[in-house]
């Protein structure tokens, strides 16, 4: 696995990242219906283009298998393709983000216990809760900081 920082998103890369996002969300965001996933998916390209630092993990064929987005010291997004989950890729990305960008904060869906447990394992602790996500939808968020 290789970690690559992306400066420009090509149409092909955007399509690959959308596939990773959808694969990951369908496996981990069990509280979302298929219609909700399709609705949210429309906003993903813009989020990918707006995040200041986009970092991807590639397999031996240089195909993206995971990605994260960082703004200042905050992890804005982390998605690992469902086929690649449990192989340490998310951990490698987080460690890279901590080392290179000093990530010390993130928000995670309360209804995604897998992610919450993963971030706790990586040294983050909940310090605040909100009933709604950034779009105002009733998906409670847990705000976590590195301790």
Protein architecture, described:
The chain is an alpha+beta fold. Helix content is 37%, strand content 30%. It contains five helices and seven strands; from the N terminus they run βαααβββαβαββ. It has helices spanning 11-28, 34-41, 44-50, 89-101, 113-121, and strands at 2-6, 53-58, 64-71, 74-80, 105-109, 124-130, 141-146. It has a seven-stranded mixed beta sheet with strand order 1-2-3-4-5-7-6. A hairpin with a 2-residue loop joins β3 (64-71) and β4 (74-80). The longest helix has 18 residues, at 11-28. The radius of gyration is 14 Å and the shape is globular. The model has no long low-confidence stretch (mean pLDDT 94).
Total E-strand runs: 7
Fraction in helix: 25-40%
The low-confidence parts are none
The amount of beta strand, in percent, is 25-35%
Provide mean pLDDT, rounded: 94
Number of helices: 5
Distance, first to last CA: 28 Å
In short:
The protein is α+β, with helices and mostly antiparallel strands and 147 residues long. It contains five helices and seven strands.
Strand and helix map with partners:
Layout: E1 2-6, H1 11-28, H2 34-41, H3 44-50, E2 53-58, E3 64-71, E4 74-80, H4 89-101, E5 105-109, H5 113-121, E6 124-130, E7 141-146
Parallel strand pairs: 4-5
Antiparallel strand pairs: 1-2, 2-3, 3-4, 5-7, 6-7
Give the tags.
147 residues; alpha+beta; seven-stranded mixed sheet; 5 helices; 37% helix; globular
